[in-house]
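*** Protein under study ***
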Amino acid sequence: MPAWDLDTEILRFVGESSKSSFTLRNAFEGCQVFGGIGGGKSSGSGRLLSVKYLQHGFGGLVLTVKPDEKDMWMEYAEMVGKQNDVIVIEPGQKKYVFNFLEYESKKDYGTTYTDNIHQVLRTVIRASEEKNEGRSDDAFWQDSLDLFLNNVITLCLLAYNKVTVQLLFDIAQSVPKKVQQTNKEDGDHANNEQDKEQEPTEYQKAVKIVKSRMSQAIKDWNSQQRDGYVHSLTEMQYEEQLDEAIPGYRELKMLDSFFMGSFFSIGDKTRAIIEFCLTSFLQKLLRDPIHSLFARYPSTVTPEDCLDGKIIILNLPVKIYHHAGQYAQMLFKYIWQRAMEQRNITKNNRPIFLWADEAQHFIHEHDAEFQATARSSRVATVYLTQNLPNYFANMGGQKSEYKVKSFLGTLATKIFHANSDVETNKYASELIGEAYTDDHTKNITYGGNISVSKGSSLKLEAIVRKEEFSRLKTGGPLNNYVCEAYIVMQGKVFSNGMNFHKAAFHQLIIPKLKTINS
């Protein structure tokens, strides 16, 4: 296995020395690419980085928004001889599937299986809810949804010793609701008798199974105690003994307290929103092709395949599969991120990349936290998007700007292609910074005599003005397939003595490099 030293050069810009080259270390510190429509972000710097990562033996995960991204990556892999390392999870095949519930049941993050499943589902639901104005910033809303989800998962596990998307959905939508008092004098007694004969709901079935199991366990425990011991205990002592001796007894009491207490008494409108949020999300996971690819069959693919140099492409483009494709990819992405954080780099130090074009569709609340430690996990994150407002719109709530700026601060390399968005161009200009320039003045006075005075002063101005970014070459035949971009790299000083470099990317030429044996 190659050494993959952190200072291994990935690419060097024309006219620059090795001191300012883009290395593995820079890759692991993250990269954000901005570019307007037709600005060359995907076909320019994005294309070059993709091929370079593949040439250097990276494994990786590719998220998709546009229908042509799978074919594009297949072409890149073929260019460098890695076509046999590509795994495509897509509809219409059963060779590559990932059962996330099965996978999480085998993982140990220092938490229970309930917590693992809860954290995964919660992260994706929260990310989707951030697009709804205001709701994601409501602490009561967040806590209520978290409690509901956690208790549904717990009940499912206690009753069936397993968790499936179908069971979660069935239980969540059948939790008892408040009912109006019936009036027997008005002939409602017959209706009540009819209701008693109705089939029990999935929630009622699960509770009945758990209570029956607990009753038998309590009976067995009582019979095992010495004569008179149980009767010698106070009610509190007896409960404490059962909590300790019978697995699931304490959880059952908490479930009953939640479902028949706090959740049962919650406002009808709030409760309806919480239930709808969870069940609508689960319903998307129950529909094919998502269900068949991520919840129905045993896994044939795991995130750890990337550690062997595999390239996993989630070919569920958001433009075709909309929210279902987006949520499924976010779910896999978060599980993948946790797996990469857990790996032992002393045993396997292979570079791994996470690639997301139109990245705003896949951002979740743990991304900044993940990126803060990505270098130690040897993960090279590359996010591409058109402009800052894309992120603002998809990281909702009252603090969206701070969330976006905090997230971008964890990506050390920024690449700015041609752009017509004022907000993004202003951000790029301010990131490059300002410098003092000579401001020359000349005064001419007319009177009895003509006098001329000259002076100069230092003036602080933007090194690259924001309007400059709209003038960059955008590639295509009119520009001989050359697109331009400004590169800002943390900790680098380029030959111009600055922290930025203006680079040109050819959209057709791929630099030749011997592929590293993996």
Q: What stands out?
A: Residues 30 and 411 are 4 Å apart (CA to CA).
